[in-house]
From TrEMBL:
GO terms for molecular function: ATP binding; carboxy-lyase activity; phosphoribosylaminoimidazolesuccinocarboxamide synthase activity. The lineage of its organism: Eukaryota, Metazoa, Ecdysozoa, Arthropoda, Hexapoda. InterPro entries: PurE_classII, PurE_dom, SAICAR_synt/ADE2_N, SAICAR_synthetase, SAICAR_synthetase_CS. CDD domains: SAICAR_synt_Ade5. In the C-terminal section; belongs to the AIR carboxylase family. Class II subfamily. In the N-terminal section; belongs to the SAICAR synthetase family. It holds the Pfam family SAICAR_synt. It comes from Neodiprion lecontei (Redheaded pine sawfly). Keywords: ATP-binding, Decarboxylase, Ligase, Lyase, Multifunctional enzyme, Nucleotide-binding, Purine biosynthesis. PANTHER family: MULTIFUNCTIONAL PROTEIN ADE2, SI:DKEY-6E2.2. GO terms for cellular component: cytosol. Residues 262-409 form the PurE domain. The keyword Glycoprotein does not apply. This is Multifunctional protein ADE2 isoform X1. One of its GO terms (biological process) is 'de novo' IMP biosynthetic process. Pathway: Purine metabolism; IMP biosynthesis via de novo pathway; 5-amino-1-(5-phospho-D-ribosyl)imidazole-4-carboxamide from 5-amino-1-(5-phospho-D-ribosyl)imidazole-4-carboxylate: step 1/2; Purine metabolism; IMP biosynthesis via de novo pathway; 5-amino-1-(5-phospho-D-ribosyl)imidazole-4-carboxylate from 5-amino-1-(5-phospho-D-ribosyl)imidazole (carboxylase route): step 1/1.
């Protein structure tokens, strides 16, 4: 990777970063991390050599995961050891916090709630970014009444709803990812910006400053910035411990974006079904699955069909089978009767014989558990839902798909509502 970005003016400098214009692309900016750690709205602050690089790596891996899951973020790419490139935004000065377990400021603000109280669904809170007044908590009504205008977008009820949903989705995606490392994501904060197209994006950074992480769900093992916040005196040895923890988190993140491994095998009874099967494969890959196409007729090549099945059973992979056969579907039921793998029938029905074509997929002998869907997208979604039980990235794609549907409907409703008929 070469990083020859020509830096323009300094747009803004905060406690831990500088933001620069990029001369060759006015839509982007460079986030330059500082070797600086701060707490208590900047009251406590130390130089910590190597912190910029660790934060940068952490942030890059987190946003890589969010981007892969399909969340709309400002992150573009890492640009060297201590910087990254982002879409240039006007920022909304609100911190969006999500909590799974009660701790920290929550239990101070809500006397009587024990530490560790579990919020289900996760609790969402908002704070106005205002160091001088210690980032006061703001209600939805306060955010809307502030009438923030960012890149020509007025932040109203719709925008708040979109950000709240997105905030919780980001938390859920990262919570599941961290769970694969036996780490409990306790709470976290994000910020949003609006780009020059008026699009709301998850922006700023997400690093060890942004969350509480408890390995094995044990508070005593915490690895995040709370360790630094808790220090009354700060020795060099303390700072080294904080840095070692941050490094540990950055290293763990390498395991959170696995290459696609969940396999869907689309078995067709005849090569004439290929087009239908390609549609299933396309949708499956968009959901983060690996897809393979095979052809074999259960009626005309029964042994070969069972041999192909044995091939996958012996592969050690996690496989969902999709059976595609027109007219009488022997394929799906034969597969289903001979394997514990899930089998989804997706017959390519003809409009004038639908009811006859689906009958063989539905009216199966006792002992068979294959399911049936009619549309290629449905087959891919059904396979993804099965894989999502063990594959957090597939789960995240499905979750973000729901978020995207929510946002699309909200935007469409806003547009229609504001039509002058
Ligand atoms: N993509 C972006 N475009 C424009 N500004 C950004 C972007 N991401 C982050 N910023 C802004 O960069 C500034 C510096 O970050 P930081 O040092 O964390 O500031 P703070 O101390 O206010 O939290 C913040 O005001 C933040 O909102
Ligand atoms: Mg900040």
């Amino acid at each position: 990777m070469s990083h020859n970005y020509k830096l323009g003016e300094l747009i803004i400098e905060g406690k831990t970063k500088q933001v620069y214009e990029l001369v060759d692309n006015p839509e982007l900016c460079l986030l330059q991390n500082k070797d600086r750690i701060t707490a208590g709205d900047g009251v406590k602050a130390h130089d910590l050599e190597g912190k910029a690089a660790i934060s940068n790596a952490t942030n890059g891996k987190v946003f890589e995961l969010l981007n892969q899951a399909g969340i709309k973020t400002a992150f573009v790419q890492i640009a060297g050891e201590t910087a990254s490139v982002s879409r240039k935004c006007e920022m909304i000065p609100i911190e969006w916090v999500t909590r799974r377990l009660a701790t920290g400021s929550f239990i101070r603000r809500h006397a009587g709630v024990p530490e560790g109280y579990r919020f289900n669904p996760p609790l969402q809170e908002t704070f106005f970014k205002d160091d001088a007044n210690h980032d006061p908590q703001w209600s939805e009504e306060q955010i809307i009444s502030a009438q923030f205008k960012v890149n020509n977008l007025l932040i109203g009820k719709d925008e708040v709803d979109i950000m709240r949903h997105t905030t919780i989705t980001v938390f859920e995606v990262l919570e599941r990812a961290w769970a694969t490392r036996d780490c409990a994501l306790i709470d976290m904060k994000i910020e949003f910006g609006v780009d020059n197209k008026g699009e709301i994006l998850v922006a700023d950074v997400i690093d060890s400053d942004s969350w509480r992480l408890w390995p094995s769900g044990d508070k005593r093992l915490m690895k995040d910035k709370q360790v630094y916040r808790n220090l009354t005196t700060v020795t060099q040895a303390d700072l080294e411990t904080v840095k070692r923890n941050f490094k540990w988190i950055a290293n763990q993140l390498d395991h959170l974006v696995p290459p696609p491994s969940s396999l869907v095998v689309i078995l067709m009874g005849s090569p004439s079904d290929e087009e239908h099967c390609q549609k299933i494969a396309k949708h499956a890959m968009a959901l983060g699955l690996r897809a393979q196409l095979r052809v074999s007729s259960a009626h005309k090549a029964t042994e070969e069909t069972l041999r192909i099945l044995a091939e996958y059973e012996g592969s050690g992979e996690k496989v969902v089978l999709v059976a595609v056969a027109g007219r009488s579907n022997g394929l799906g039921p034969v597969l289903s009767g001979n394997t514990p793998f899930p089998v989804i029938n997706c017959p390519p029905v003809k409009p004038d014989s639908v009811s006859q074509d689906i009958w063989s997929s539905l009216n199966v002998p006792s002992g068979l558990g294959c399911t049936t869907v009619l549309y290629p997208e449905s087959a891919a979604l059904a396979a993804a839902q099965i894989h999502a039980l063990h594959d957090h990235l597939v789960w995240s794609r499905l979750r973000v798909k729901q978020l995207t549907n929510f946002v699309t409907l909200k935007k469409a409703d806003k547009k229609l509502r504001n039509l002058n008929l």
